[in-house]
Amino acid sequence: MTRAAIDQVGLDTGKQARLHDILYRNGLRNGTAIFLPYDQGLEHGPRDFFANPAASDPRYVLDLAVEGGFNGVVLQIGLAEKFFAEYAGEIPLVLKLNGKTDIPPDGEALSPLHASVEDAVRLGAHAVGYTLYVGTPAVESDFAQYRQVRADARRLGMPLIVWAYPRGSAIEAKGGKDSFYAVDYAARTASELGADVVKVNFPHPEKREHVKAEYDTGFSARQAIDAVVRSANRTMLLVSGGTRAGDEAMLEKARQSMEAGATGLIFGRNVWQREHDESLRFVERLRGILEKFPVPARSR
Amino acid sequence: MTRAAIDQVGLDTGKQARLHDILYRNGLRNGTAIFLPYDQGLEHGPRDFFANPAASDPRYVLDLAVEGGFNGVVLQIGLAEKFFAEYAGEIPLVLKLNGKTDIPPDGEALSPLHASVEDAVRLGAHAVGYTLYVGTPAVESDFAQYRQVRADARRLGMPLIVWAYPRGSAIEAKGGKDSFYAVDYAARTASELGADVVKVNFPHPEKREHVKAEYDTGFSARQAIDAVVRSANRTMLLVSGGTRAGDEAMLEKARQSMEAGATGLIFGRNVWQREHDESLRFVERLRGILEKFPVPARSR
Amino acid sequence: MTRAAIDQVGLDTGKQARLHDILYRNGLRNGTAIFLPYDQGLEHGPRDFFANPAASDPRYVLDLAVEGGFNGVVLQIGLAEKFFAEYAGEIPLVLKLNGKTDIPPDGEALSPLHASVEDAVRLGAHAVGYTLYVGTPAVESDFAQYRQVRADARRLGMPLIVWAYPRGSAIEAKGGKDSFYAVDYAARTASELGADVVKVNFPHPEKREHVKAEYDTGFSARQAIDAVVRSANRTMLLVSGGTRAGDEAMLEKARQSMEAGATGLIFGRNVWQREHDESLRFVERLRGILEKFPVPARSR
Amino acid sequence: MTRAAIDQVGLDTGKQARLHDILYRNGLRNGTAIFLPYDQGLEHGPRDFFANPAASDPRYVLDLAVEGGFNGVVLQIGLAEKFFAEYAGEIPLVLKLNGKTDIPPDGEALSPLHASVEDAVRLGAHAVGYTLYVGTPAVESDFAQYRQVRADARRLGMPLIVWAYPRGSAIEAKGGKDSFYAVDYAARTASELGADVVKVNFPHPEKREHVKAEYDTGFSARQAIDAVVRSANRTMLLVSGGTRAGDEAMLEKARQSMEAGATGLIFGRNVWQREHDESLRFVERLRGILEKFPVPARSR
Amino acid sequence: MTRAAIDQVGLDTGKQARLHDILYRNGLRNGTAIFLPYDQGLEHGPRDFFANPAASDPRYVLDLAVEGGFNGVVLQIGLAEKFFAEYAGEIPLVLKLNGKTDIPPDGEALSPLHASVEDAVRLGAHAVGYTLYVGTPAVESDFAQYRQVRADARRLGMPLIVWAYPRGSAIEAKGGKDSFYAVDYAARTASELGADVVKVNFPHPEKREHVKAEYDTGFSARQAIDAVVRSANRTMLLVSGGTRAGDEAMLEKARQSMEAGATGLIFGRNVWQREHDESLRFVERLRGILEKFPVPARSR
């Protein structure tokens, strides 16, 4: 699928300006993007840093983001306020507006707000992030929070990146959060509800237990990611690295995603859970893939 | 039943202006209407597009709406913001203000708000849509949302179309969501609570298990739809196509509804879940029915 | 100069939708427009109706607007609320938001607000009108009013037509309100301050007394109107008929304006200050001019 | 005087981020700046374009800003909304929040607000501009407007550039708006009242008639600009080109300003009131000066 | 780990001013701190005063805070309003904004707000305290309260001290509230969510039952507190005394904490649950430890 230029997808001036900066004045400057998320200290706790204790220090990760040529770094409000000033202007900030710990069970998952779109503006961020738990029974609170975020993001010209995560007891009962069924539905939900960019996990068509009948057939991984990109239509798609896994498998997924029409990648633990130079080498391989999928900056 | 002219049903100037545009400057221009809803990607997920993958692309469906001579197209906020500008002025937009996925169970169904009447005004929409889950235990949140929507729609002269859907565990226990009992009650609820237009499913008088005694007798389908139109009184009534079914049965229901005094139809999956030209042929047959039920634009 | 399509001039979805309706679903439906203003009863008093007393009745003028195939009619809030419902949907309404009598002298001219953009939305209007007195010493109040109108119009997707009228003692001392200098400055001011459409009087390059040196040379009428259209850049330009004058001169000015790149005309007294059928014949001649300057509805 | 790094002057994260982008990711990327102001169509009228009619088209000037390697372009809200989307991300926007025509006399000069800091955020601007008429009798309205702008700019992390213009009858009576006395006082006023950047005209120490005694001595031009930079202290200083004048004199003033510690220049008419290639050659000479005054991006 | 100076950790002016006062004009005036919390009457009830009934009188404890050379005293709103005026200016007040009794079980622990940041300003407090129950199922309410407190503290320049307490059924099932796993996660959560100072219990690495695998290895106490300080990064860390325990063990924990990079201690019951002079002697020993870990007031 051909990726659309950012002036073709119904974006206001401010969102265009900030996305243009992310996509054409950072990273490979070719319209693709790779983001470095760094909110796992909240989402999973400091245990995620045990593989590489240096990564516990936000400066280590921010330096990595700059050195590695990332298009943006994702932080929660606390780290953004304490650390971003020193990197302001050197790399775009995506302020993650909600988040939660992984301590209570996920059956009725909800990710409470910690910051506002106005906080993001104040900090000079280039985009905001919101985790939407598609399928959670706590949907009323989740959608109410989201609605305000979406309206504020539109009012202030701030691109909205939705972490579209299938979650909750009903999802667990229908193929789980990584099934093709769940990921496809999550991508479409983000698009229908006005995300500018959507982050999804790579879909697993082989996870078919109790999914809707339409998904219970022999789709290939490539067919699945193709469908997910179509479901997202004009919402740009980022594929998440998730738990650190084998490099070759990760790179293959990244390649398939870009071929399917994704805009880019969002890789955290796969990057900073290894030694510094090894991180950079891995990022270089990811960039090598993105390099092959340039998107023109303007449609005319 | 004779349909009233729009200057006879207590509407303010702005609502009259917008409805006149929908009913007399679009579609057959004879006071009837056929709407194309396209929010199933959220309500049911992308699986609804598997029958005709082209329909996953909003542009395909918007083109169909223009080519088919529909009176309006129904979109959620995300697709409206990303796609409608290209069709603005060519077909009226009905902005659907609330919506939900079908992932969690429906026992306490609630459709959270995603957009405001002011969003609809800003996008140049001709009407707003709201799903009211008549009978749900989550009635407090549902009616609270609805109350605000109704008040805003009145303040801004925006016609309010209510998707009056019987839903929730108590409905399931009393004949189900398509029973004559449930549909009739839903139509009346919308009318009592100030809808300008109400969308209902075609009533099934044969679904009588555990319905109130008054409905537990031998009503015909025609008697049922007559009653539903009377229950709606000055609230214009649209009959929904629902899940794709046999064409002849659908056309017969459409004919009976118009004879009963309905203002029109709202058919989505029955239209775009087939191949393009076949869609247009089916729409042509629906228009052939509407053609026979003109309503004068002015009462004097 | 080539007129731009309405999807090329930086307009939001709602403004595009409403302008598309005015320009392509009314009048000649070719992207040009002719408006019928009817606020002279306030601006000049009933004396304007003495030439044709029938025109004192708003219905007479509204009927004329429909019969004559105008693209819109301009009313103050009082007449809009009392008369527009009967014409709603048949012709676009431009709600004039401010206005004043001509009783006090114009040295410190200010046109106070009488209605809001929200009133226009509520009445189903397609645009709002605001008189900006460019050059008036009362600029602080004028710009403060205008700023709120502009912001509301943007928020609600309502096209903003600015009556850009040079006025005040300083203007009188520098060539007067119809001088090329004054009209050119007024068109630019409207464009710089965010008008979507600007209404100007036809510029008089021969009025050179005390104008800025740059304008004190031998410009032709055609050169003047060309310059004014350029000064307005992406703000669509309407040329006003003003005081009723000789038909051939009026038609020549209309032709020159359209050749220069104007979007259309706004003619009131020249139309309704004559007998009914004569009015329609004159309008027909104006339409004959507009017919020759079609603008494509979409740039792609 | 040594220019301070932007992390040493008491700026919040967002202001640092946006200024870093302006100063180190645009133009010469060395901490100096040259801005292209384009609001003269409002401030003086279209006559400013007569020397080079192409400059009447905002696209011409925006293209020039990109080609010439400016650090930012200054627009009023109307042109920003209609034209900036096409350049978004390619050059920083400074949204000028207030402005006026030059038609009424300047004795009680006041520049009314036309847009808000929130508009600037929404459009993805990098800074806002406000004209403060230092010395005007209309000081109450002026300072009241300014106070709100300053507070909003702080709340939203938006750098505030103050056009510090001595103006009004009292200034005319004491040496005039370009006197060393007036410019020095204006620079200090901006600093005392919280400007992040101040734009001043080059001071004329020889304009001594009726100035305060302290200024009525034989200061050199260099002494004057040195003093003005000191008066501005941590408020970065931009020197304005003003009316187009002889190139060598302009370049000499630019050089003296940078030697004195100015951050950069803001040149409009001197640039675009000449033929295209000649404009670029003149800009190249200005850049040649700025090149010699780099400021490190971080203090540590 | 080297403690950062307060001008290096991303704090606004007001927070810097208040923290400088706490850290360099009170206590040892060397950048370390020891706080005296006195909200146990609410949190545990008067039973905490039975060991030393004199401590039931707030004046007794406030006198002790002054005599002992504490850097601040922590009070709930009621005691602050009734008693602090008499000590105002003699010792900094930390107003604890939320609190609860220990009567209901802690499975869904939530500490409701009793006062606002504005109350703290009004009382001349130097900081506010908030108890965040990390891991509680009542996370939605807890984070919503906290979010408002954080935003208000930022707006008003008030340092925010977070009592980061692991709590709730899920915590009890995974090692308990004092486990290294739980304390480490709590410190990080406070840092990610924008605490300026975080109060934690000393971590117990030997509590390993059902903790995440990463923590289920043989960490020493010193390794644990080192990790917790790193997890808190630029959020200053205070170690809590908790339930009164053996003095030598307490002092050893204090020493290890300071060596690890903590900013100070917060000791209540260990201090005032003994006889007056003995309290002072114990405090003197704590100060003897802090004396060895000075932090420079300015980084340059």
UniProtKB/TrEMBL annotation, chains A, B, C, D, E:
It comes from the Bacteria. SUPFAM superfamilies: Aldolase (SSF51569). InterPro entries: Aldolase_TIM, DeoC/FbaB/LacD_aldolase, DeoC/FbaB_aldolase, FbaB-like. It holds the Pfam family DeoC. This is Class I fructose-bisphosphate aldolase. It comes from Spongisporangium articulatum.
